[in-house]
Amino acid sequence: MSNKPRFPGTSGAGSVRVVDLRSDTVTKPGPAMRRAMAEAEVGDDVMGEDPTINELQKIAADMFGMEAALFVPSGTMSNLIAVMVHCRERGDEMIVGDLSHLHIYEQGGSAQLAGVHSTTVTTLPDGTFDLEQLELKICHGYPDPHYPRSCLICVENTHNIQGGRVLPLTFLQEVRTLADKHGLSVHMDGARVMNAAVAQGVPPSTILQHTHTVSVCLSKGLGAPVGSMLAGPKNFISQAVRCRKALGGGMRQAGILAAAGKLSLLENVEKLQEDHRNAKTFAQALLQCDPPLFIVDTAAVETNILCFHLQELGLSPSEFCARMGQVCEGEEAALGQGIQVLMCPYFGNSVRAVWHLGISPEDTQLAIQKMQFVASQYLEKLRAQ
Ligand SMILES: Cc1ncc(COP(=O)(O)O)c(C=O)c1O
């Protein structure tokens, strides 16, 4: 059987199914969401007059147990605004996990745009920090002028790079106690906090009682096309409105987008459970793959993100992902159809696959078939060498 790709891009001749596990950001709005968007009542939101946005903000604040919430264009802007509002004085500092999205994937926006210094703590495999290390990092700034002044601790829940790990409630409580002891605030990058809430079987407010502010993405597993919610105390949100405007995030008749956001919060939260189940099913199939090619800790698959490694048999994560994304000669005959599974080589020489609204249990089974096919083909090739 040759490894020559027949369809290196999207589908060519014959029937090819695409299972896109690159990220939960790839979801597309379905008919009900598009209808809600088309029918949304709108107004000028910079003047506070968009009724659909106002409604979404109220729904989010209530759901998160916060006084107020603000609709913002993206998770990155939402985190940046939080940093800008919490760290207002020159020389203010935030403490972040060294593997946090805020620290790694937001282009250093808090330094670049907000002028805020950050110091890092080591991110542990479950997304938490060592609290003693965290406390040692806290600087008070006064009276010794050498040091910055720590104002903010940022946590990420679920933790992206660590594979969708859910932060234990006891850890959050301990971080908050430490923050209160030293007069710091706690911001949660809760891009996927709804996944955490579903996995823990608690309302999001139970998680967020331990934080001062939170940023929640609507455009990931919840399936909205655009937008994040930043939530916190009323005076924090009033200042956030100013920062959002300065960053160019003041939108006008964006109720069209908020209508999708409303639906995502009201109707799509329960569906996250299915993504978690599918991710686990795929992880178990990796573990059971015969011959063994993968290393995966199934107990660490708590939500919709799966990170796994390949045994050291000469197949790199990028080669594996490339092979999963191609349909080779003979594949249709062996599997009944061509299957392209899109996933990404990831942090620390791993592969990342993410489940979302667009992936059904049947798609997951197709991805498993493809993974088994790729593994057996590769090992056949190794034996033949
Ligand atoms: C944990 C986390 N925070 C923040 C973001 C940023 O969200 P956005 O892509 O909407 O800027 C992401 C995006 O993947 C994320 O995974």
UniProtKB/TrEMBL annotation:
Ranges where the Aromatic amino acid beta-eliminating lyase/threonine aldolase domain occurs: 20-306
UniProtKB keywords: Lyase, Pyridoxal phosphate
GO molecular function: L-allo-threonine aldolase activity
Cofactor: pyridoxal 5'-phosphate
Gene Ontology CC: one annotated term: cytosol
Residues with PTM N6-(pyridoxal phosphate)lysine: K220
One of the GO biological process terms: L-threonine catabolic process
Xref: Pfam families: Beta_elim_lyase
InterPro entries found in the cross-reference section: ArAA_b-elim_lyase/Thr_aldolase, Low_specificity_L-TA-like, PyrdxlP-dep_Trfase, PyrdxlP-dep_Trfase_major, PyrdxlP-dep_Trfase_small
NCBIfam families xref list: GntG_guanitoxin (NF041359)
Family: Belongs to the threonine aldolase family.
The name this protein goes by in its record: Aromatic amino acid beta-eliminating lyase/threonine aldolase domain-containing protein
Taxonomic source organism: Monopterus albus
